[in-house]
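Working notes for the structural subgroup meeting. M.R. asked for a predicted model of this chain before we commit to crystallization trials. I am recording the input and output together here so anyone reviewing the notebook later can reproduce the run.

Input as submitted:
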Amino acid sequence: MRKKRNKITTFENVVLFPGTVERLIAKAHEYVETYQYDLANKNFEEALKYSDESDELTLSVYAYSLYEAKSFEKAKEICEELLSIGPSMYLEVMELYLTICIQLKQYKQVESIITSLLEEEAIPADQIEKFQRLKELNANIAENIYQQEDIVNNKLQLDVDTFSIDYFLSLKPNEQLMQVHSLTTVNIRPIVVQLKAIVENETTHTFIKSLILILLVEQNVDINLTISKFGREMEVNPSKMELPTKLPQFNKVSDLVNEQLDQEPSILEMVQYLISKHSIVTYPFEWLDYDSEDVALSYIDFVRTMFGSIREMDYEVVDFLQNLEKLTEL
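Returned structure, recorded in token form:
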């Protein structure tokens, strides 16, 4: 008598042995119980990939695990799939769904859903207070967010006058530096015209020009600028530029320095610090017409003299580096 064989299926050329999906789901549940949500989610995802139908319990635990792992978009998607099939734990799933929406800052959607549920009397009497509290929490969070946005917007509106060319240039260099630093966490597009005027002004400090240009690059602002410094001029567009540490000569000089100072970590750290700082001052021109190897060796000599070592060096390049250092001292 021939022995009965278990059926082996395939999925996109992957051989699935009997019980594969069940084992993956069981393993996922084990990971959830031990708070290893990322591992649980990988197992759930793989199991659902191989299965056409998913039971309510699996989807519910998967949605919860995604939420705990802060994968809010995917968790919302799984909850929506659950709600579409009308789960027996409808209110529990809906509560999780609304909590996820709050995390995604979808406050209007949360307000609309809870209001509809209450108006349609779809929530049992013993659950109404819980959903009303959730509605109040959503409203409070939304109000706080809107207030914070108003504060930022008002602050930026007030700063527009601060960045007018006449007022800004009337400030001392260290005060200008503080004003530029205040822009690092806000959208600078509303004052791009003012920033362009500052950057293109011949009397603006070299270091300040560079810092503003970096802000424009970081926020991918599409505007044409004329940068003048060190007796040369360049037409640039921040949206098409790399940051100083991504430019070719910076990488070449850094590599050369790393090779030379592999066995001298103290000197290497100081040289790397100076290279990074000076690359901002000269941005976007890098080290002008100086050869990368000469620049690298001169930085090493420059730092060695700071440690008391006297040696023969390329004084022209070292003098240039000393000048760059002074330009950073606002």
